[in-house]
Every structure is written in C-alpha cells, then in structure tokens.
Specification:
alpha+beta, single chain, globular, nine-stranded antiparallel β-sheet, 9 helices
C-alpha cells in the first residue's frame, strides 16, 4: 500500500491475473424513481462526462448475453439519443473503459420507473447515476474540474442526495468476489474511501443518505429538514448553496484516506455524519463477501455519540 500525495493507492488481482481493484474517485447521484422526468437531463450529463473523460477506451458496454461489447461513437450517441425519449419503463446505460479488468472511467445509470412492476412494492426505490474516475484524473487541476462538473450536475438534476469521494473501484462480474475480499480488509483501515454499490442502493436508500463524504450534496429542502446549515457549526466544513436550491457540505481540507493507523483527522467527517444522522441509511442487504453486521458498521463508521 503506497501513499501518494497523502492518498492511499491500492490494487488487487484475481487468481487469473486480472486486476480487480484500484484506487479512484466516484460521484453518485440519487434521483426519484420516476425516471421519465429526468432521462433527458441524465443523457446530457452522461454526454458531458464522456467529453470530460476524453478517453478513447470509454466505449465498452455489456451485451445482452453478458459479454463485453465495443461501441462506436455513433452507437454511443444513438444510445444516448434513445435515453432522451421516455417510454414509461425502467431504463439503463453503462460504459466502461476496460472490458477485462477494473475500469477507471465508468458510467452507470439505473433509471427506475414508477410503472415498473419490480418497483411498485419497493417504496424506497430510486434511480441512480454513477461516474468513476481513475486517480490520475484528479491530478493537477483534475479534482477541481470534477467538483465543478458535479456541482453543475446537482444544479441541473432533481437530486435527492449525491456525493463525491475517493473510492474503491472494483471489477464487476467474475472479478467482484476477489475485489470485495480485498475491500473487506482495507475498509477497516481507510474510513474515507467509499464502497459504491448501486445494485443495493437503487432498491433501498429512498430519501436517506449513505453518510459523510468529502463532498456531500443535499437536495432541495433536505437541509431544512435537518434544521438548516446554521445547526452545523463545525470547523473544517464548508457550506455552499447551489443554483436550484441544493446544498453542498464539503470537508475544507484536502481529501484523505482516513487512515486510522496514521491517525488522520476525521473530525469534519464526524461532524457531517452527526448532522445527517436523522437521514442515515442502514442497509438490510450486505455487500458481497461481507457479513451484514460488518456492512452496517461500515455505514456507521463516522458515528459519534450525540452530545
């Protein structure tokens, strides 16, 4: 485990030699289950992400038989165009930059419809938009560009909540178990590294929040339900009001891994976690390779006793 510019760098490979885990960043945006109301906006946001990434390899998707399929630029644009037209049904979109190992740049959208029989009995179902970035993309002014991009998405999309964070980026499919075996060990040491897992989130999270991150977004009216930003009087937390009514809560110091062995300062994360505690999500389904009690403990990792 190497530390580069204060952030942990990590990697894991499966028995077949494929890389299944890497360090990187994630942006996750939770939207209402009524995907017809935001599909057009999401399509535009995905197009902007593709232009920001500038990666010629960001062209792979999963075919109908579960195999990786390379798309041409025209095919990608056609799929984004189809996404712009609501059909009163659930929709999805995915692109990745590596068909064999864990991707750096990746986009995944699960747009759930209120008319989908699968969601009718799931009151906490939401749509989810996820972007991932390799660590190299945050170098120099890269992280500022990502934050600016995510701010613009929050101002355009009808988010419930969203966040930006350093993250464990893992391979999906056959490489997922090996990746999560490594994550299960590493997450005990690195509290500020996210474990994104939208396959659970989209059915369970509802109007809850996943906890505290380096950059947190609360949708319109959410901050008022917590008593307003004036109730969050914590050094080290920057509060920003965004166009459209959402609020950003950002840790003022540079991002860190939250390394408990190095006793990195996580007081700002603890303060944010305390502030959003009334909205804290607790999972009923575990991550792969985790016991449920370990997953719950991870979601509560920044909890501090109320004062």
């Amino acid at each position: 485990m190497d530390i580069v510019d204060g952030m942990p760098a990590f990697s894991a490979t499966a028995e077949i030699g494929a890389r299944v885990l890497r360090d990187g960043w994630v942006g996750v945006f939770y939207l209402p289950a009524s995907c017809a109301d935001h599909q057009l906006l999401v399509s535009d946001c995905i197009g902007d992400f593709i232009r920001l990434a500038r990666s010629p390899e960001l062209r792979w998707t999963i075919g109908e038989h579960g195999d990786a399929v390379a798309l041409s630029t025209t095919e990608i644009m056609d799929r984004l165009g189809a996404l712009r037209t609501p059909h009163n049904a659930s929709v999805g979109f995915r692109l990745m930059d590596n068909p064999r190992e864990v991707s750096g740049f990746r986009v995944r959208y699960i747009g759930l419809s209120n008319n989908d029989p699968m969601t009718m009995n799931l009151p906490d179902a939401v749509s989810v938009l996820l972007f991932t970035y390799p660590t190299e993309a945050t170098m120099e002014n890269g992280l500022l560009n990502i934050v600016t991009f995510h701010d613009s998405l929050v101002e355009r999309l009808p988010i419930i909540n969203a966040y930006t964070s350093p993250a464990f980026l893992y391979a999906t499919g056959a490489g997922e178990p090996a990746a999560f075996q490594a994550i299960r060990r590493l997450c005990r040491r690195y509290s500020c590294i996210d474990i994104p897992y939208m396959s659970i989130d989209c059915f369970e999270i509802g109007n809850k929040v996943r906890g505290a991150y380096w950059l947190n977004y609360l949708g319109v009216g959410r901050i008022d339900s917590l008593g307003g930003t004036e109730t969050l009087q914590a050094a080290g937390v920057t509060k920003r009001s965004l166009a459209g009514g959402a609020t950003a809560l950002q840790v003022s110091s540079p991002p860190c891994g939250g390394d408990i062995n190095r006793r990195e300062d996580m007081s700002a994360y603890n303060a944010i976690a305390t502030f959003v505690r009334p909205l804290q999500y607790t999972p009923s389904v575990s991550f792969p390779e985790f016991e449920l009690e370990d997953a719950v403990a991870w979601f509560r990792r920044f909890d501090t006793p109320p004062t």
